[in-house]
Each structure stands twice: as C-alpha cells, then as structure tokens.
Amino acid sequence: MALGKLLRLTLFGESHGCCVGFVLEGVPPGIAISVEEINEELALRRPGRVLTSPRREEDQVELLSGVYMGYTTGAPIAGIIRNRDVDSSFYEEVVRHRPRPGHSDLAARLRYMGFNDYRGGGMFSGRLTAALVAAGAVAKKIAGRHGLGFYAYLRRLGPATCPEPRSAEELERLREERNRSPVFCHDEEASEEMRKALIAALREGDSLGGVVEVWITGAPPGLGEPPLDPLDADLAKAFFAIPGVRGVELGIGMRAGEKRGSEATDNIVLSTEGAPVPVPGYSGGVLGGLSTGAPIVMRAAFKPTSTIRKPLRTIDWRGLEEATITGRGRHDPAIAIRAVPVVEAVTALVTTDHLLRWLPYRLEHYHWLERNLGDE
C-alpha cells in the first residue's frame, strides 16, 4: 500500500532489522536535492537528544536511485537509513512472551500468527518515521518551488502549552527558535514549562502525551479532490499512520461542537493582494475538502508513551496466564517531541501529492483565461 496518488510513498524495514527505507515515485525531474539536505531534516528527528530515547542512531540517508549529480532524474527515489544501535535483549527476554500494553504486540501477533518481528515493535515502530522524514524532505523541495511552506511545533506537552504563531509571516523567524528548543516549542518560557513537566513525569516512572500543530502556507485555493479525496481527509489519514496518533483536528477542531454559527464561521474578505480569503481561520484553511488559499492549520494528538516503569497488566503466552510487565528498553518519555518533524514531513508529502494533481487545473485555467479574456 502506498501513500499518495501522483507522489507515491512506500516504506519498508523494521526497528531492529538492518535498516528502514522508502521508495518515492512520481518525483518530477530536475528538483535540486542533496543527501546533506535530507540529513539536516533527519537530525531533527534523530534519537539521542535530551529528553528523547537514548538509542544512538546516526540517521544518515543512503540514496540508492532517483538522484544524479544533485538533481532528481524522474525515476523513483529509493533510500535507506541503517539501524546501527540495536539492543533486542528486552524483546527476546520479555516481549516475546508478554505483549506490552498500549503497543501493537497483541494485535500483531494475532494478525500475523506469531510470525511478526516483535523486536522494537518491528514494522509498527516509530523508527520507520525516519524514512517518512527523509521522503518528506524531497516533497518539501517540490512544494517549495511553487511557494508552499510547512511549519510544525509542539503545541502542548502534558499540562504545558506553547503559544500559537500570530501570523503565517512570522513562521520562518520562529523556526530557528523552535529548533533550539529541546521540545520544539518556539517560546522559551513555555519550552521550560514543558521540560519541567516531562522531568516530573519521568521521576514518577511515567510519560506525557502531547499535541503537534502544523501550518501550511502558500497553498493555492483548490487543492483536494472531493468527494472521496478531500485534502483534509487525506492529511488526517496520513497523520493516523504516524505511530502514537490518537486524534486529529482542523482549524478549531473539536471546539466547533461547543460554538454557535456566529462564533465559528469565517467571513470572506479581500487580502492585501486582492484575493478573497476566509478569516479569521476557524475552518483551518480547508472548506468542502478544498484549500481556500488561507493558511492551513491542523493538529495531531499523540498518546503518552506506553512503555513506562510503572507495572502494567498483561498476559503470558506460555499458558495464557495473567501477568505484569514493567517497561525496559530505550523509549521516548514523550512521543510527541520527536513527532514534530514527522508531522511536518507527512504534511509535505500529502500536500505535495495534491499539488501535483492540481497543477493541470492551473494550466487549463490559464488557457481558459487566455481564450475568454484575451484581445479579440
């Protein structure tokens, strides 16, 4: 199964296998891309940072095809990221017999009749998001040529909240501040509150959930193919493919259920460029499954890490008896932190796929204007 129609992504690999990787089809030729640019994106997601998993991975992509002399060739781009710091002892000693609560262990064993690779979660592991980020770096380059930009940050971590951007114009300035933060929050005070909340949870052997917010800027009106491939629906599906996502919102999201129409309906005004846009943005930049030309704002809620030092109830496959399990191994105390570059990458992949689908309409629109508004 692939993500996307014109820009098609396939992932492969397992957490404790030799590598994880991707194949990205449909990339136009002539897009400037380098290994260094992809590795810069991977460095944001890489484990081993403060407040993340202590697993030490280099996360350097190896491009196998589709790029020559610094440009895409039009052929499928294949890349791998090797797993070099693997420790399977906890999984062989414990998880082999006792499925971890909150993980895919139970359902995967039943679905694949016990033949699944359970080490580190196998193909269900967040480790595969490294391949998502690498492929997303290519998608960003394609979208950037058409003026689209993507910005994700940690909106909430447990009880602490990062202030939302005031406008799309300040996102590039905030990016540098976000990248300096250990929790990808562009506000220094909120970043410190998040850090303290996570340390407090760790001291109690626990973890925290969080919310990642992403902005899409520069998207032209009309991206999306309703009724069955709306832009927001495709983004939501892709978000749910990220391990740990438990909820997705567009615009004001679930708060819409508490509002009156007068409190949740955008007005249509003319921008400084003279284009009609909905404001102030309750709709999140998508109406009827189509982008409106306004910034698109979505959020993904991530569950707290399920592997914790507190004992949890499970079963032992040897005799099907009830048992307990206490988390070991190397895990992120908050999935949402390293999910920030992942959400940004997935957003770029889906939006760029819809951009490539939309471009023929743009050309046809140009010809229509030429035929109907040209000199007689």
Description of the molecule:
The protein has 376 residues and is of the alpha+beta class. It contains nine helices and 17 strands. It has helices at residues 35-45, 89-95, 105-111, 129-144, 171-180, 188-203, 231-240, 261-264, 335-373, and strands spanning 8-13, 19-25, 61-65, 67-68, 71-72, 77-82, 149-157, 160-161, 210-217, 245-250, 267-270, 276-279, 286-287, 290-291, 296-302, 312-316, 321-325. The strands form six sheets. Strands 8-7-9-15-10 form a five-stranded antiparallel β-sheet. Strands 1-2-6-3 form a four-stranded antiparallel β-sheet, covered by helices on one side. The longest helix is centred in the C-terminal third of the chain and has 39 residues, at 335-373.
Shape: globular
CATH top level class name:
Alpha Beta
- Say which CATH homologous superfamily is assigned: Chorismate synthase AroC
Which architecture per CATH? 4-Layer Sandwich
Strand content: 15-25%
What is the count of distinct domains?
A: 1
Placed side by side, the strands forming the largest sheet appear as 8-7-9-15-10
Number of helices: 9
Order of helices and strands: EEHEEEEHHHEEHHEHEHEEEEEEEH
Largest sheet geometry: 5 strands, antiparallel
pLDDT < 50 stretches: none
Please state the CA-atom Rg, rounded to the nearest Å: 22 Å
CATH topology: Chorismate synthase, AroC fold
**SSE class:** alpha+beta
Q: Count the E strands.
A: 17
Rounded to the nearest angstrom, the distance between the terminal CA atoms is: 51 Å
Percent helix, as a range, is 25-40%
Q: Mean pLDDT score, rounded? A: 93
